[in-house]
Amino acid sequence: MVDVDWVERVGGLRQWASGPERAPHKPLLLLYALGRFQAAPESGLRYTDVEEDLAGLLREYGPPRRTSPGYPFHHLVSDGVWEVRTDSGADSPGPGVGRLRESGAVGRLVPELRTALDTDPALLSVLARTLLDLHFPPSLQEDIAADAGLDLEAADLARMTGVSGGAAERARVAVRRFVRDPGAARRLRARVLAAYGNRCAFCGFDGALGRRPVGLEAAHVHWWAYDGPDELSNALCLCSLHHKLFDKGVLGLDPGLRITVSARFSGAGAAARAQVRELAGRPVAAPEEAGAEPVAAPYARWHTTQVFRA
Prior knowledge:
310 residues; mainly alpha
């Protein structure tokens, strides 16, 4: 049976906050820990062995500002899902990377959570999906899981085969308060694609199969996971490629709603030039629907400070 308490704990991780700034340090570490547990349930994570992996996850999926993997390694202990022990048997020496290295700090999921994961084949998938839905847009979730070492297909299969009847309903109730209503996502997509005339606001792609648009998606500018509203003024119709690049911080918006391209992007081929580099400075297409608002300045600013890789 899915333990509601573990879903509540994971869904309620305490994170550093300063206004609307992103701080997904703990969720990324916990996803990584779940991936390592999935591969080797009995192994601990020695800080010196995983520091490079954690730093890479934070660079790729954390906020643009510089950050330290020592922060979540130490502070996740306070959430009751993680423990740290040093070579001397003492608790975590603090978030400083030097002290974590020198003390031989090893982190692992707390014993009660490890037991719950061993007992319940559904729990790992529920916890991983909760973390991904709470902190990241759908376009990045598969990449994050892969980089964290999580086999989501295997975890989801375990959930589907290991939960049935009343247990399945308890799992849905436990997770519902943390994840987005699929119906809301479908409604927003329909509104956004209609407002933009079924065309990508960056490149103009307007593919369809019969009468149904294909390869077009509704992209939040200020992510839903960080309280971005389901409003037309916080959304763009983007093709799948440009949605992914927008959420990854390769593409952004300047105050005049012109497309910006990260200086960190590389790509020498003709396709990279045409589909990315040559977009720089191009105005974002405005909605075609009468009365539909373009992207509002506060949402564009949030994306610039929290996502775009300047």
